[in-house]
Each structure stands twice: as structure tokens, then as C-alpha cells.
Amino acid sequence: MVEDRPPVPAEREALDRPWRIWASVAVVSFVLLAFLLGFLVVPERGKAGFDPFTAMCRALGIPGFGREPPESPAAERAAPASEVAWTSDTRRLLASADVKQGAQVAESICLPCHGMDGVGTTPIYPHLVRQSAAAIFKQMQDYRSGKRQGAQAAIMTAFAQMLDDRQIANVAAYYASQRPSQRVRPIATSPAIVELARIGDPARSLPPCEACHAGSGGPIEAPVLLGQSVSYLEQQLQAFASGERRNDIFARMRTIAQQLTPEEIRGLSLYYSAGSGTENTESDATAAMLR
Amino acid sequence: MVERPMDERAILRTELRWVIVVAIAVLIIVGSIVISSAAVVLHPPSSVERIDPTTLHVSGEFVEDNLGAVQNRDGSVTVRLVATQFAFVPNCIVVPADRPVTFRITSPDVIHGLLIVGTNVNTMVMPGYVSEVRTTFPRTGEHLMPCHEFCGLGHSEMWSRVRVVEPAAWQPDENGRVSCETPARSPVEEAPEETPQ
Ligand SMILES: [Cu+2]
Fold this sequence. Notes:
The complex is a heterodimer of chains A (about 290) and B (about 200).
Chain A: H1 10-41, H2 52-60, H3 73-77, H4 88-95, H5 99-114, H6 133-145, H7 153-160, H8 165-177, H9 191-198, H10 210-213, H11 230-242, H12 252-259, H13 262-273, H14 281-290
Helix pairs in contact in A: 5-8, 6-7, 6-8, 9-13, 11-12, 11-13
Chain B: H1 8-39, E1 49-50, E2 68-71, E3 77-84, E4 87-89, E5 92-96, E6 100-106, E7 112-115, E8 122-125, E9 129-136, E10 141-146, E11 159-165, E12 177-178
Parallel strand pairs in B: 3-6, 5-11
Antiparallel strand pairs in B: 1-9, 2-3, 2-12, 3-4, 6-9, 7-8, 10-11
The structure holds copper (II) ion.
């Protein structure tokens, strides 16, 4: 209760007053000084060109006060590597995909080459079985728009153009829902190749392939490599290195593939192929070379 | 409790002493911020710029073809970069010495860090925001530019090069761009190249 408190003696109040006044003055002037320094003096010394209020709003990121991004005329003319963007719309489309309808698309179109279970019928047709829906969706979109070129992309472009966005999402979800019948392990060819795949090479700024391709981080569209045929992997890496295939966003794979030697490309392809597709004569030669 | 009147003045003096100690500590901290910003030119960002990280590669100033060093119409130099898992794009940039250079950088995925070794360029790169740094390189030579914010398994392989050349050797092409692939059109015959280690 307020009344319970004994009244403060007048002399003590008088003693406290200057202390209270000066303490308040000190705090207020410190806050003001900090405001001035933090929002006006330090961020834009000299050439501000706008009033203090605008400066504060800019620094706080209040919408409407920020600077217009500088003009860059070339940006309008630039052609993106891929038109696929992982916006909330795209993610919603993938999340709402219908696996049953996807199976119908797969049966009517993809079956002869990729099988119903996503296992390529011959080594020239990549497996879709271990891929994520995001990876399949991105590649189908890029085939359809013509962004994915190189190797045998022309075959796929024709099929992708038969489908709309929703059908692509459905068939991607269908193949992503397939489970592989057997587990595969990479073939440890040489220690240098294993190191490249798992540790990378800091001196050449080559990140480990596993950082992106093992499903444990990196871009969500990165396909699973394990189990693809040697010839397919090698072909794709060569297409990235030569720049024929350039649908990788921000040149992630082109930059890496350009730095790999032909021997490394061969070795990594064999490593990830896990022995699949080695019936191909060309790859037999490769396997023999690495042995 | 014993009703013993305390000496108000003694309490006041003790309080005052502690206030002075705290005030000195605060002044030292604020002072070092002010000095570092004025003398070493380390500024807090003066403008927060937002950008949609999911569509960087599709439209706007951070599309792949628009990255790298460019001479603007008013003659100033801007370097646009994207920091992504696990590389800076482009992974080599050329800038002129003794000219103001503005770095604009953003990320489509996670937080990265921009640090140009041996210079005052040092900032965090956050998805959703554009980080801008302005600087001038006084000497020619090559700097390392590592990512200094752990960003994933490939973090330790995430680094690029910044090559600082004579202003006269920095010759933009018809689009105003200069890249590491552009042959250096130096007026003097090639100065001995610094070997990267
Ligand atoms: Cu990073």
C-alpha cells in the first residue's frame, strides 16, 4: 500500500533532487548523442543529401525510404541460366503434386526409357529413381524452355514440351516417390578421386561433390549422382566444362567442371556410377584404365 | 530491524563512483566505434536494401550475366557479386587501383561473409539483403577473398581472387565490363605477375 510507506523527509528529497536532475540529463544527452552518431554522422559522413528523418529510416530499413537500386542496363538484356526459381509458388506446386496422375504421365511417355521404377532401360537413359522431386522438376522445366542443352538434351526437350507445369510437378513427384530396389556404394577408384568427392580441393577452390550431391545441404536442385552410368556422368561433366550445358544456376557446375582434368572427370564418373552401366564398351575401357 | 538512519551522503558518493566507472566503460566502447568508423573507415550500413533471394538469377541486377566489375555511365566502378554455396560468382574480379569501387553483394541461400584480405572490405552477406561496401584500392596486386562465415560443407573451398590493376590497364569492353578473362590491355608490357599461392 502506498500509504504504508513513510514519507520521504524533506531534507533528503532536497539532497536527491540535483542528483535526479543530472542523472536524467546525462541519460537523455547520451541517447541523443548516440542517435546522432549512429544514424547521421557515422553512416553518411559529408555527402548525405537527405534530411535526418530519411537517414534514420534508411538505416533502419523502413520500406519506402531506401535508395533505389542503381541502374544496370545490362541486367534487362541478360538471359537467365534457368527460369526455375524456388519461390513459394514453385514449392507449393511441388507440394501439391498428384503422384497418381504423375504415374499416368510416366506410363504414357517416359516408360520406354526411364522405366516405371525410374531405372533407365539402357545406360544412355539416366535413372530418375533416387532423384528428388525438385531435381526432376528443375531439369524438366529446363528441357522444356531449351535452357538445358548439350549431350542428348534434344531427346528430352521434345518430351518435356508435351507437358505443362502441373504435369511436370506430378511426374516429378511420382519418380521421387519410387524407392530403389538395391543399395549402391561408390567405387573407391583412387584415393585422389575419393578425396575430391568427399573433401574437395581448397587450393583450386573445388568444394567436395558431397557437399551438394549427397542430399545433405547445398542447392535443393542438385541431382543425386550415385548409381548413374559412367557414360552419362562423364557426358554431363564434359558438357558443363565446355559450356554446352549451362542451365546450372550461377554457374555452380560449370565453374567446378572447368577445373577438373579429363582424368578427374573420368575418375569421378566411375566413382559415382557404382559400377552401373559399365557394360558400355567405352566405360569398360575407362574402368580398365583406372584399375 | 534496527532503525539506524544511514548517511545519505555516503550512499550518494558510492553511487557516484560507480556511475563514473560505468560511464568510462561506455565511453570507451562508443569511442572505439566512432574512431574505427572515422579513422579505419569501417561503417555500419547506412541503408538497408531488401531483395528477393529466390529470384536473383531470373531478373534484376544479380542475374548471372550482370555480375562482375562494370564501369557505370558516370565513370564509377561497381562490382556485383553473388555469394552462394560454395563459391563467389564470378570467382575472379579485376578492379582498377586508385579509383572508388562499390561492391554490391547478396546471397540466394545462406549467410556468407565477404572479406578482401589486406583491405578494409569486410561485411556479412545475408539472403534477402544487399550488402554494399565502398572502397579504394591504393596498390596493384592480388588479394584473396575468402568466405568468412561458415556456410556448409564446402565453406573452406569458398574463396575468390581480386586482382587490382593499374587504372590505365583497366579497359572496359563495349558493355563497360572487365573480367579476368578479358586480356589485360596494358599500355606498358606486362609487369611481373604476382604469383598466387
Ligand atoms: Cu560461404
